[in-house]
């Protein structure tokens, strides 16, 4: 497992972030996440200025692992790398994007969204180790992840979509899962209203759950 994969797996939870005002919010958000024991972020290209947000989060918290999500083009991969992104997440499996990220001159971990046996076959051929399982709840949740890991035990997955404090422990109890992604600790309400302490608190609660799930496992 690469260092990035290992760090994500140790933290156990990856906040999926959409920032409409990166200049105002990126630094305080990074500090709030780190204070809650979650020094990792997937900054999505759903909002303009994702690259600015990545740069500002890294500046505010250099120890933080900052990646990017909702990546649809090779141009976004380049912008994210230039801004300091350390991993790429895509909603689906686009082999062109995977091969691009794996090129020697890019060499950045990429986690494509996969939910079907056909996706997993392609991911295997591409030499991937960690997949995003998206949208997790809507695609069959933990039951499907377990069923998929029977023929494909070589993958670890990062389920995202419908994860909350309520089902986090259940997901993390499976050895097929390296971490869960989610936006519940970085909702638009929390960010737009600068509720940084609440974000920190939600991160702390999430980390407790990660520790509990792992100590039982
Ligand atoms: C994602 O892109 O990974 C999801 O939209 C996050 O899903 P959630 O908002 O249900 O956590």
Describe the protein in words.
The chain is an alpha/beta fold and 217 residues long. A four-stranded parallel sheet has the order 3-2-1-8, with helices on both faces. Helix 2 runs parallel beside helix 10. The longest helix has 21 residues. The protein is globular. The model has no long low-confidence stretch (mean pLDDT 97). The site of 3-phosphoglyceric acid (3PG) has 10 residues, from strand 8.
Give a brief rundown of this model.
This protein is of the alpha/beta class and 217 residues long. The protein is built from ten helices and eight strands. It has one domain: Aldolase class I (TIM Barrel).
Coarse morphology: globular
Q: What string gives the helices and strands in order?
A: HEHEHEHEHEHEHEHEHH
Number of domains: 1
Number of helices: 10
Give the biggest beta sheet.
Answer: 4 strands, parallel
What is the rounded distance between the termini?
20 Å
Q: Mean of the pLDDT scores? A: 97
Helix content: 40-55%
Q: Please tally the β strands and state the result.
A: 8
Please give the CATH architecture.
Alpha-Beta Barrel
Structural class: alpha/beta
Rg: 16 Å
CATH third-tier fold name: TIM Barrel
CATH class: Alpha Beta
Low-confidence stretches: none
Assign the CATH superfamily: Aldolase class I
How would you write the strand order of the largest sheet?
Answer: 3-2-1-8
Residue share in β-strands? 5-15%
Q: What ligand molecules are bound, each kind once?
A: 3-phosphoglyceric acid
């Amino acid at each position: 497992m690469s260092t990035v994969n290992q760090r994500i797996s140790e933290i156990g939870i990856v906040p999926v972030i959409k920032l409409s005002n990166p200049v105002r919010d990126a630094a305080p958000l990074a500090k709030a996440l780190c204070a809650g024991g979650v020094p990792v972020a997937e900054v999505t290209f759903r909002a303009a200025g994702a690259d600015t947000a990545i740069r500002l989060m890294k500046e505010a918290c250099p120890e933080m692992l900052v990646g990017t999500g909702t990546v649809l083009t090779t141009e976004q991969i380049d912008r994210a790398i230039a801004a300091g992104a350390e991993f790429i997440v895509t909603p689906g499996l686009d082999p062109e994007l995977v091969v691009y990220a794996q090129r020697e001159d890019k060499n950045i971990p990429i986690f494509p969204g996969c939910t079907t046996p056909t996706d997993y076959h392609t991911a295997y051929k591409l030499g991937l180790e960690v997949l995003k399982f998206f949208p997790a709840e809507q695609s069959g949740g933990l039951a499907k992840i377990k069923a998929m890991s029977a023929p494909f035990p070589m993958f670890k997955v990062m389920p995202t979509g419908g994860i909350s404090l309520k089902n986090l422990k259940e997901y993390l109890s499976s050895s097929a899962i390296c971490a869960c992604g989610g936006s519940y600790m970085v909702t638009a309400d929390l960010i737009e209203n600068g509720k940084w302490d609440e974000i920190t608190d939600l991160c702390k609660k999430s980390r407790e759950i990660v520790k509990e799930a792992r100590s039982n496992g």
